[in-house]
């Protein structure tokens, strides 16, 4: 049974607040082990990576074998069915078309004081994408990480993907090829993150690392942050659906299950202004859970973290949604556009009943790497911006320096930074000599 | 004596590579102490903050006294001279004018398949700015952090600034008022970061924390990252000047010293295509160091980390600069605009000899919070974007779902995520019934 709440309940606020702070994930503390792995890779390079891969992935490799050869990639890609290839290509094309529009403009202008100001965007030179191995090795995530990097203009894009016992996922290799990835290494875990961040004899270091991973990968990303850039540390996935009674309860049920099936720690939340509809959806979920392939996972997620909230109206639903700041938000209501205007915190919004969240996971175009665990309050999904950085530009004319330089000198002196002031003063004195 | 190198030296590459990886800062390992402080503030709230403030800042406060009252702010602001107030107001106005231009656009379009896509930017609801106390308590940094937050639309902006022994900096208070800060708390250290991230009885939690600080503050920011957003972890400052022989050596010398005076760990680098000019600048630095107020700090920084590199030409200078990826880059050459086009990695570029870096610290308009320690390879200075987040939007028409839904279903099945596929299939079946 999921958690049933109604905003008219006397204890609603208490129970809702408890839901917001409920811990869904117990990350094992692997930080010490990870620190050791990183130090080992920094010291011994390839040799450490090879030893760790033998230990964790049961793969005896040589330094030359760390990277997939073009022939190996060809052979694996050839295993993919045409239907799957076409689906990947459609997804890639749509993701690319969306992300191209995110490219920001450079600007440069001269203000009334004669100061020319602006900024310019440039891509990160080299990026590394971590792709998990095993069950969570998703080709769609390769597209979602690699395409924004290539659209941004990243010249060198490397992937690491562990292949435990030598098992590689052909779709991952094909997705990497379609996205234009330059290098693919068959390594994983904290050792892969360390190799990308610090480099080894075989693997050149990168400037930015993105992509999801297990507790070891997350801890390693935290540790190399600063040496390289990283994307967010992703937590378990969540969906929040706001639906009125004019929906098919089964559609909403299967949407809720599409998050629940990811992970026992995933969370699916329904907010509706009709209590009866909420019960109908819960019943439809039970029915779907009878036959769903991943019913054990989805059932546990729904049992532990599933939530059905009845509100007085849709405005109240929007307010509660903002407090969750969900990763995914479906608005299955008559006027989803109007309701979306009332939402301030969400990673991605899916408007209307014809837009199941799963469309966004694969072929919609927007990125599926989104802020989890309420971090949509302060962060955004992955985009081309994660692979670009801004250089600000400033150019003073002598007149501009005359106009604004004295204020800089004054503030420098107030901050006891004399040389700052003198660097302005030396120029102003020259101008005054000239006058 | 600074490090003198020439690209024509036989051992240049070795020495240059050593400079790039030279460790300038030994951060004390305070992580365990900080973990304890954060846990204490989470458990005991105000009581913990008050105890820690008594201990570290020698200030006996009550919960009511944590926040500066409007009367206290009024009284402190009245201590500021008119000249300083005008300088702060000019700076604020120019910083605001620059950052307003950074506001990104919302977008929404419908593609040929009938999918309506886009994104919308919204501000973080509440942000906290950390302002160091004592010598490094810079009013200019208050403007540089607070103005972008307010331009972005942050509703609630809180500052924490420690006041050891009760000493407050009136300019910091005035800068906060000019920038539109809503709450000012007289606390600092890891306890201030913990209070901002988790909240106490008196201090409501925020969603994003920015601002520089000592090792305790940096460690605390790292630890609360995820619960809240943070800006970069700043390292010691650096400047790189590319100058040809047509410059006044003294101007360049004082520009180099304007970084060196910050901190013994700061780094000042000159790259020139004229060896004799390089020596002249070094001589001018020695002369300035005779009289500079902060000559002990600046002298030590120049002695330990100062670098003068002679290159064959300016193109080579630009290449070397990119390997440093400097926080501040001055281009004191005949055609600085052309040379700037060859630069890929820099936090801020100052074009031409009339643009000393100190202009950018105060009144230029661009932000002075910039990526240090080579992180301009992958990150940008502070901007309105740090206080905004993007929600992606997607809306399928029935026709769009028909066109792209089957590819989503196929990929979902390839990834063994059946419910994802079913959420699309349920809708497609309805459409097919209707057909």
From TrEMBL, chains A, B:
EC number: 1.1.1.23
Coiled coil location: 66-93
Sequence positions that bind Zn(2+): 259, 262, 361, 420
GO MF terms, alphabetically ordered: histidinol dehydrogenase activity; NAD binding; zinc ion binding
GO biological process: L-histidine biosynthetic process
Binding site for substrate: 237, 259, 262, 328, 361, 415, 420
PROSITE patterns the record matches: HISOL_DEHYDROGENASE
Bound cofactor: record note: Binds 1 zinc ion per subunit.
CDD domains: Histidinol_dh
Reactions listed under catalytic activity: L-histidinol + 2 NAD(+) + H2O = L-histidine + 2 NADH + 3 H(+)
Record keywords: Amino-acid biosynthesis, Coiled coil, Histidine biosynthesis, Metal-binding, NAD, Oxidoreductase, Zinc
Cofactor field: Zn(2+)
Family matches, as Pfam families: Histidinol_dh
Pathway(s): Amino-acid biosynthesis; L-histidine biosynthesis; L-histidine from 5-phospho-alpha-D-ribose 1-diphosphate: step 9/9
Cellular component GO terms, alphabetical: cytosol
Residues annotated as the enzyme's active site: 327-328
Stored InterPro entries: Ald_DH/histidinol_DH, Histidinol_DH_CS, Histidinol_DH_monofunct, Hstdl_DH
Domain of life: Bacteria
Binding site for NAD(+): 130, 191, 214
HAMAP family listed in its UniProt record: HisD
Stated family: Belongs to the histidinol dehydrogenase family.
Function: Catalyzes the sequential NAD-dependent oxidations of L-histidinol to L-histidinaldehyde and then to L-histidine.
UniProt-recorded name of the protein: Histidinol dehydrogenase
Originating organism: Celeribacter persicus
Lineage: Bacteria, Pseudomonadati, Pseudomonadota, Alphaproteobacteria, Rhodobacterales
Gene field: hisD
